[in-house]
């Protein structure tokens, strides 16, 4: 059993604190993804789990055992690095077998384990090449192979796919997912790509400036972001945010754009400033999508740009001088400047406190309005 | 003129230049095999008539005319001093280079600069106080005394070269090795050291050549057969007004050969070593 | 004291790794330099040990700085270094470019090019003393046999000829270091910028001037820095070829120091001069090191 616990973990470089007391419980065999913008402390956190970075304060336990003072080699973890960190002077076979060789395993056992890993990852034809003679994707596979050979308690990944092109990346994403299903192990995976996070994770941990902002399943964080930061960070295209004000049972976004208050926000005080958020998928031109049954508001908005993607077209529309993205299913050509009638699915809209950015909860009080 | 012709001309020109560079050395080598009589006659004898190993026999005390110079001892002293000081300097320098490449600590860049500047002190300026200090401590005229000095003068450059090399080796390789179960010590020897090999090899050859060829310090710090090195021994051929050119040429050949062999052995590393050690990153 | 202890504790590993290097340099370089700095203020003579305590203040420095021979040697040294380093650099650059151009037999050429690097400076001195000798020297013999000159040319006696001969020896010995380092730079040079420049219509000269040369600059400065670390090796050459003579006409700073210290046995005064020579070396090294750092930064922006 290898659950990983971080308790009030702090990292300081000299006087500068970069990770501010993180608490996180990762269950056995759980696939947890740490996401966040560059420099938010993801790698630092991961490296503290690996033992590559000293823990300034707090405690990390793996399998119930506090590992603060253990060097990496005694933690029974393996790690895939962003640049793979393959040993350039060793062949693929030697790379794969290195950890077992260090552990003093017998020659046959090492070879068997290396062959087995190569089998799983389709590396068998390349066993006698050096990393310099492999393509990016193959290197990536060797790095993963090296990690699985040890049968570790915990897999750590630090942006393992960021050096691959888009196509390979989605392919390897699937392979990692499969790998996790075959060799059930606890995984901590760092990325700043939210698509990777959504597709791979059992649970996503969103970090910002050394804090955890939100933890939850992918759907959780997509549907119920705790604040505007998560709302814009998770989901693509990013959620549209428009400043507005509660006024007479509606939200005034600009002089001529008003949206009725969605359900559950009746208690909003008159004149309260809010940020109104909705995703492109929920703003569509009339007759082009949105077969919704819930509450729908209709808005007339000028379109400034159309981006045809084939099955759908992304539209840039304008609200109160601010550009928002909308989607058009079964597209037809749209010329810039054209004013379209849009439908907005209010059930999927969010309101955030204008000051703090914190999302306002809907109240279950249908009766009052 | 076609491209092929031009390339050929450049080749010939390069070859001639290389030849010109070699001539002074080759002339000395040639003289090593000719008797003094033939070298010194006037008008000059251009085509050697009398090539033999007599000069070598003479300086090793084997032939008919014996030169009373203990070249064997000098060679042994040189070998012991150069090899020992090279090994020690590379070990010490490597450890220092690693510290500079891998760790951050306050005062790092000024420490680096000062170490480098310590190498700029001219041998002759250093030899004056060392001569006195070594006399007081009894290190004068001993191999150990020279070894210590040579180690110190070789350390800065070794640090420079190896630092550049270790900086080239990505940090995460060592980390990956530690996750794979290595102690930091194992990670160094199994991963970082093999990858920095060319840098270390070129540092070693530079250290060796410096020690093997050094004269200014050795000439002051050594006196007797027990410690005199080959370059110092070369002076034995000069009497007040005469120089035994033939014997000296033979000894020159003896000095060059080990350096030549070693340099050829590691010359592949030398270019790689200098390319990546110095500038990049 | 407390801060010191904290510093050591926080950086224990790198300090431990550096300790042997620092230690040996302290003992072999710094300690002697402190000692010689002290003797620079005494009337110390080797033959009279008690004179070590004969403190005479700045008198040595005053003597040295008012000594015409010293200034002559200093200027000759600076001139020597400037001429030698620049010529070595130019010749090394040419050699490297030539070797880089050829493909067939390049390895062999490269090896030949490194030939002089293996020579001990003292050997180089003897070699050229032998070749430039006015009676038996091969150069004079050749000139006379070819009828280019009637009588022997006093290469090692005439003031400027001797200076030139010494510079020649020095350049012969050290050009290959420049060549090899610049060649290393040429090998490391990326092809794209050159090709891009060709496409943009540059002539070969323009490519060299605007692409290759700027890229090579750091390598040239490295070579300069490395060379200026041990320019004083020229002492060996001069000592052998002319011994600073005849009549001090080829005296460089280093030979002057040696003579003052060992022949005249005036340690104190020699040490005072030695400090000037150290400053000179440090200046040259520091100068090129600064340029190197600047060039590196420039290259980083490539
Ligand atoms: N050795 C160090 N010394 C000082 N500060 C550091 C050090 N390493 C990292 N930091 C700082 O710690 C913070 C977190 O770095 P970290 O590498 O964890 O970011 P990250 O979330 O992994 O970013 P990225 O997505 O760019 O990899 C950054 O602000 C960084 O500048
Ligand atoms: Mg990172």
Quick rundown:
In chain A, helix 2 packs parallel to helix 4 (136-149). The mean pLDDT of chain A is 89. Chain A is built from 8 helices and 20 strands.
The description of the largest β-sheet of chain B is: none
**What would you say the CATH architecture of chain B is?**
Orthogonal Bundle
Q: In whole angstroms, how far apart are the ends of chain A?
A: 52 Å
Instruction: Write down how many β-strands of chain A occur, each being a DSSP E stretch of 2 or more residues.
Output: 20
As a percent range, the share of strand residues of chain B is under 5%
Portion of residues within helices of chain B: over 70%
| Global structural class of chain A | alpha+beta
List all distinct small molecules, including ions and cofactors, that are bound in this structure: adenosine-5'-triphosphate, magnesium ion
Beta-strand level of the residues of chain A, as a percent range? Answer: 25-35%
Q: Cα distance, first to last residue of chain B? A: 42 Å
Report on this model:
The complex is a heterotrimer of chains A (369), B (281) and C (302). With 369 residues, chain A is α+β, with helices and mostly antiparallel strands. Chain A is 23% helix and 34% strand. In chain A, a hairpin with a 5-residue loop joins strand 12 (250-252) and strand 13. In chain A, helix 3 (107-121) packs across helix 4 (136-149). The longest helix of chain A has 17 residues, at 166-182. The radius of gyration of chain A is 25 Å and the shape is elongated. Chain B is globular and about 75 Å long. In chain B, 74% of the residues lie in helices and 0% in strands. The model of chain B is unreliable at 277-281 (pLDDT under 50). Chain C is flat and about 75 Å long. The model of chain C has no long low-confidence stretch (mean pLDDT 83). Chains in contact: A-B, B-C. The interface between B and C is large, with 90 and 101 residues. Bound molecules: adenosine-5'-triphosphate (ATP) and magnesium ion (MG). Magnesium ion (MG) is lined by residues 42-43, 158 of chain A. Residues 13, 18, 36, 38-44, 192 of chain A line the site of adenosine-5'-triphosphate.
